[in-house]
Amino acid sequence: MKRHLISAGDLSRDDALLILDTAEELARVSERSIKKLPTLRGRTVVNLFFEDSTRTRISFEAAAKRLSADVINFSAKGSSVSKGESLKDTALTLEAMGADAVVIRHAASGAPHRLATWVRGSVVNAGDGTHEHPTQALLDAFSMRRRLGRLEGLKVAIVGDVLHSRVARSNVLLLGTLGAEVTLVAPPTLLPVAVETWPCQVSYDLDAVLPKSDVVMMLRVQLERMNAAYFPSAREYSRRYGLDRARFGRLHDDAIVMHPGPMNRGMEISAEVADSPRSTITEQVANGVTVRMAVLYLLLGGSEPAIGTSAADPAVQTVPGGEL
Predict the structure, then answer these.
(1) pLDDT 10s digits, 158-212
(2) Known catalytic residue at 83
(3) Residue of 22, 39, 44, 56 marked active site
(4) What strands, in cross-sheet order, belong to the sheet with 70-75?
(5) Which listed CATH number (3.40.50.1370, 3.90.79.10, 3.30.830.10, 3.40.50.880) goes with 134-281?
(6) Whole-model pTM above 0.85?
(7) Among 44, 49, 59, 57, CA closest to 120
(8) Which residue of the set 105, 164, 169, 292 is catalytic?
(9) Has domain 8-133+284-323 been given CATH number 3.40.50.1370?
């Protein structure tokens, strides 16, 4: 793997499978009463969040702590950033403190890429503007593979506010690398310029795509990023692109429903669908910790999958650098 994880497009097929396979091994840790490994003891991970976050920030913090790393949580609110400190000066401060990895979320697209030029440690993109969110795509792929047993050849529909969605961009790149067939479904106003250059298909008709889909990933309508009238009304959007019980019934019996969260229940997805047994939404949150453990482990600790068996005890699984 490369030193940083900035874009899902940076991952080769082998890199992506290495992360997913490592996460599969590390998932066994979450089933134990003591969920901690000594793998990253003595390493420092900084969570540098310039945007509000619940799932991603807590997920990265839990992942680092389960690997025994020291964690520093940095919030722009109440820090020198609120006094006008630049990203570069903040980065140099972290560098002076000896951060081994910096997990960054920033409102500006490209901020993680710039940060990577200023620090010697690894940089992990936890979401930059409307650009990318590679670890979300990895946990989504991990969730699909766990539920459906494969990624190659899966037909995945990504539905909704693609224009503002860093999750959609990362998923299109990663799933394409892993052999899935992705179709973006959205009104024309919520598709980005040059979407035809992306490795996917595009449709404006959700009802036509649903029966052919193995996975339907609903995207949150990001009202906070919208500065124009992208659709007539919330009711009209829900009528055309919301996943309700009737549309859910058009899916084949093994198809699953996903959502990166947080959800606008009743707008892009109904509560009944979100809470159904074929929804992976809560699993995605749990899988996020495991996948981010794998990312941090591979960037900071090891280069091989977390597989193997202790010669002394065949029941004990091991990872390079620590017992599982």
Answers:
(1) 999 999 899 999 999 999 999 999 999 999 989 999 999 999 999 999 999 999 9
(2) yes
(3) 56
(4) 70-75, 44-49, 101-106, 122-128
(5) 3.40.50.1370
(6) yes
(7) 44
(8) 105
(9) yes
